[in-house]
Amino acid sequence: MTLRHAVLGLLAEAPGSGYDLLKRFETAMANVWSATQSQLYGELGKLEKSGLIEVVSEGPRGRKEYAITGEGRAELRAWLLEPWAPPSPRSETLLRIYFLGEVAPVQAREYVRRYAESADELAGHLASIDESVDWDDSDSAVFGRLVLEWGKRHAAMEREWADWAVERIRTARG
Amino acid sequence: MTLRHAVLGLLAEAPGSGYDLLKRFETAMANVWSATQSQLYGELGKLEKSGLIEVVSEGPRGRKEYAITGEGRAELRAWLLEPWAPPSPRSETLLRIYFLGEVAPVQAREYVRRYAESADELAGHLASIDESVDWDDSDSAVFGRLVLEWGKRHAAMEREWADWAVERIRTARG
DNA sequence: GAGCCCATGTAATAAGTTACATGATTGT
DNA sequence: ACAATCATGTAACTTATTACATGGGCTC
To answer: Which residues form a coiled coil (chains A, B) (predicted)?
Structure first.
């Protein structure tokens, strides 16, 4: 039930069509949550049926612009305040690293090096988002920057860890 | 197809029953991947049927000890060397933070404070794992420590970020 | 014999991915 | 006219969660 709330949150910021939301998932939210086109349209249908969002206008090409309803906003707030437990982590990348003893040390180092590269790419991507977004002093901008900063710090941590790890693998096995 | 490889990897380290593996998911792998009991037994059945693992002995209470086969080990290595793309991040916690502008600043700060606490708890948990595990100089110990270190750095980053974020929310809105 | 752990399995549901399928509008 | 982008939807499949269901063995 998380995509549900991601959609409600985006529509609470500003109304939009499925297509619009998809773009927002790919850019500002890329750091945070993702959705496929298929899943998104399905969820919009369900949310409308349950009255949490509504169609506010129809445009060309069957475009339907959705907006959050009062009920939807109430649901969003309830979700934000509800007691939560951090979900158990699930990282395919870390899983591979955990088992890297199964392959030759050279290959293991190479894997970690690629990991470092992708951390750098992510850092670059986040930096470009930071530049392209027009940060005002609205609530969403404040928290958007918080989340962006989280991503930057995360990418930096990954980079540093990877450098350290490559060295560690070298000294452990040559 | 990731649980599949998590199971293969664990059985490559040492044979075990479903129950054993479940324990290992909850302890050493807690940082990395998780599985429910239900999912695990299902996957063990499928892996056995496809010949990637086999039952090596049966014990009391219907206990079945599984071991990885040659074919299974080959599959594990292929997976480790296969080209990969980092999966799109999906963090319910960050998602909530992203939308925290919907609730009162006091509540937002409180949320971030709880986040910091859970980062500390994670750090403590990882430290206790580090102490309780008997690290030899095997491959799996080398990479196990790498992954554990990743977790420690991650927890530290979250803690620092949260402190900074609380301050940021305070100055932005009082 | 009571309680705790060991041990496995099934069924129903929810969530997410990939592929398929279609078509209108806009800008050049 | 052509290409790019806008725009929505369905079907089949895989993955993961929650709840149900059962029972043996060990220790005190």
So the answer is: none
Q: What is the pLDDT of residues B4-27, one digit of tens each?
A: 999 999 999 999 999 999 999 998
Give the CA B108 to C1' D7 distance in Å.
36
User: Do the chains contact at B103 and A77, CB–CB below 8 Å?
Assistant: yes
Q: How far is the CA of B59 from the C1' of D23 (A)?
A: 15
Q: What are phi and psi of B114, to 5 degrees?
A: -65, -35
Residues of A in contact with B147 (CB under 8 A): 94, 97-98
Half-sphere exposure of B47 (CA within 13 A, CB side): 31
Question: Checking phi first, is residue A61 left (phi over 0); if not, alpha (psi -120 to 50) or beta?
Answer: left
Rounded CA separation A106/A5 (Å): 44
Residues close to nucleic acid strand D (C-beta < 7 A): A 17-20, 37-38, 41-42, 44-45, 59-64, 88, 90; B 1-4, 34-39, 60-61
Q: How far, rounded to the nearest angstrom, does the alpha carbon of residue A151 sit from its chain's CA centroid?
A: 10
Look at the block and give the residue holding tokens 């599949």.
Answer: B4
pLDDT digits (tens, 9 = 90+) for B52-96: 999 999 999 999 999 999 999 999 999 999 988 888 889 999 999
